[in-house]
Amino acid sequence: MEEQQELIMNVGGKEEEEGGQPRPSSWRKNCDQTEGPKPEPEIEEHRIDIIVEISDKVKNWIGSVGNAKQRTPSQNPWPSIPKVPALMLRKTTSKDFKKFYEPRVISFGPYHHGKPHLRSGENIKPLCARAFLAASSQSIEDVYKKIKSNIEAVRKCYDRRPTNKYDDKTLAWMMLMDGCFILQFILSEEGDTKVLREHQLSCVLGDLFLLENQLPFGVLQLFFETADIPSMKDKITKFVLSTIRGLDEKTSASKMQLKEPAHLLDLLRSALLGGDKKISRKPKVQEKQEAYAHGCCRKWMKSLSKKKSSSHVNWQSFRHIRELKAAGIHLQPSGTNFLTDISFESHFFYGYLKLPFLVIDDSTKPRFLNLVAYEMCPDAPEDYTVTSFLCFLVDLIDHRDDVKELRSKKILCNLLGSDKEVAQIFNETTDGLIDMDVYKDVKDDIQKHYDKRVNTWIAQALHDHFSSPWTIMAFIAAVFIIILAVVQTYFAILGN
After folding, report:
1. Is a pLDDT exceeding 50 seen at residue 303?
2. Which of 205, 178, 180 is closest to 109 using CA atoms?
3. Residue 332: CB partners within 8 Å, gap ≥ 6?
4. Per-residue model confidence as pLDDT tens digits over 411-431
5. Orientation angle between helical segments 119-136 and 140-149, nearest 10 degrees
6. Could you read off the pLDDT of 73-111 as tens digits, one per residue?
7. Total-model pTM
8. Whole-angstrom Cα distance, residue 346 to residue 364?
9. 345: β partners
10. Which residues contact 390 (CB under 8 A, 6 or more apart)?
């Protein structure tokens, strides 16, 4: 009991002597000064181990991440041929864009093989295969063995689901028939006229340049690497160049320096861009890109914000060709069909925007849509030049009068018949696309010229009052009358 009472009293804060008498407070202060700070009591740590069990479903997720990392560095010698991205398969109230990516007459590869409306095309393939093998002096057994030995590389070029339903033999035979048809179609100037009618020829020509209807170029090389056909690769390039309407006849593959293509659609894209020809960039833009890549974007933005003239870089105020024309910016043909040949020159209160020549027909929309879809794929070139070119044209074309101006300057040839339909094609093709600003330098130069108000006012006055020969003649007559009046007044005063 006494020990318990002493414990309770100490807890209550009273300090007593051994005899029960309380000690003076001065003693406590001296004791605190001599003894120093008391060590803090040790706190016992308690750790609770929580065991989380990973279910089989989560293990599958973890395994898929590991497999994805292993599949990223592809060891396949041939580039892949993916399906069209879901973004491009959009639907509107009036049109379904899916039809622009599907073959109409004949299929190549596993994506559209066996569809009911393409059965007539399958009946044509054996005839073309016999003709090509006879022209190239090859046996069908030897060609089949070469394809069969590379069948794993062929499978890796396509998505798994469409190819899994075909065994190696069936897939190899499919590549044999499709490859022979393509090469025989290219060898003949107008296709195999014995089995194809005129309307079918144009449809097959369109089917050759669909993204989901491609064969790897490496597969085509298996056909003609030992064939008795000289310079087959050059003939393929010449054939692709011939499909670009309005292309200068003097333009050749050797001048463009085309690289090894992934497939025919990639070869068409390279031809439209002029081969390895790149859009000229200013050193300042390159420095900005390098600064951004090295994490110096903040420093550059601070220095840029101090300049008053930097506002034009962030946005553009011009909308279409009619506005540019009113501001003194005139259109001129660049002299080629290459989409990279776009430039702008500023001369006092006049400017000249040079654009490549384009032919618009029924094949324009599906070709551009498939080229844009190809640029969105992982294995495609990363410059997005075709996408940016279309976005640049949409900035210029807003009305049929803009198309009319392009026609009057010999920049655009409209084979559709309606200027409104041409404007609609470019607007529908670029709907939902993001401009990667490949032509940013050209846009900035146009905006700089557009921001010069004095030049714009002078050009606007000339456009409003001297746009026709009659107004010019009236102005000259008025000036002449004023000069005569001044001369007459002068001599009258001098005579007096």
Report:
1. no
2. 178
3. 352, 353, 354, 355, 409, 411
4. 999 998 889 999 999 988 888
5. 110
6. 456 788 899 999 988 887 665 677 889 999 999 999 999
7. 0.74
8. 32
9. 352
10. 368, 372, 426, 429, 430, 433
